[in-house]
Amino acid sequence: MLKKRILSALSLGISLAITSTAYAAYPERPVTLVVPYPPGGTTDLLARLVSMKLTKSLGQTFIIENKPGAGGQIGTQAVAKAKPDGYTLVMGNINSHGINAALYKELPYRPVEDFAPIIIVAETPNVMVANKNAPFKSFDEFIAYAKQNPGVVSFGSTSIGGSPHMSGELLKAKAGIDMVHVPYQGGGPMLNDVLGGQIQVGFDNLPSSAGHIESGSLRALAVTTTQRWPTFKDVPTMAESGVADYEVSAWFGILAPAGTPDDVVQKLNRSIASALTEEDMIKRLEGLGARAVKNTPEQFSDHIRAEVRKWTEVVKTNKLPMR
């Protein structure tokens, strides 16, 4: 019996050593980074920035493959089912690995169990903007107005189930106000209606609203992050304006299929974290209205679990229809 245990331990040790050696040279061929959204969006742009850095630092080409559809489900599912060898990755975000789990009855993948999180690359706030002629000039005035006029305020978002939409739903739940959601096909049409006064307020990713805010054509009432954003320091956060426990960060991170060797996960984490400290990368992120996060795989995993819990509670509290 003792002899069998010794042989078993030796066999396990040899197996682990072989596995570690096999992945020490990773990557030995091109790697595919799936973007589950169309080209040109923030998720796609960040994926391309990271892929260029990894191609340079790791010596193999990191190929971007756009697989859009079903709110990010098609491309994300494809990676969940891919071979867990580090050669197929996905650029996920707050929707694919947070909100979707709360909104869809039958999501074709499990955001937590089916993935090996690697690193959150960057985050950007959403912003609540108002028509400059609206009857409220600040976030505090808006809350007072909404409470005095339940159901009167219409808020626009870029899509049903996107982080701007859910930012508004979270505000309803946390502040105890009643607003009517008006979904649009993208930020452009939504902002046009806020500018024209068809709706009083809108929730948007900060980068696409920044120009209107800077020109004064739209008034920024608040950002959704817990701290003021460096490029818009005069815009308050909702939390500091009295909405307790309010926080929404539109985050973007890289994940591998569950079962991917830890050596590969750690190597990618280190390489990406290093790239995010480079001056040109920092400037590119700032140009997108984003900032680097650089967390560990364990922290990323915890973050996904927290996001799923948070948005599931918001959907239940606001009685949103599941899709």
From TrEMBL:
Recorded superkingdom: Bacteria
One Pfam short name: TctC
Classification via InterPro entries: BUG, Bug_dom1
Annotated signal sequence range: 1-24
Family matches, as SUPFAM superfamilies: Periplasmic binding protein-like II
Keyword entries, A-Z: Signal
Keyword Phosphoprotein: no
Family: Belongs to the UPF0065 (bug) family.
PANTHER family per UniProt: BLR1237 PROTEIN (PTHR42928:SF5), TRICARBOXYLATE-BINDING PROTEIN (PTHR42928)
Full protein name: ABC transporter substrate-binding protein
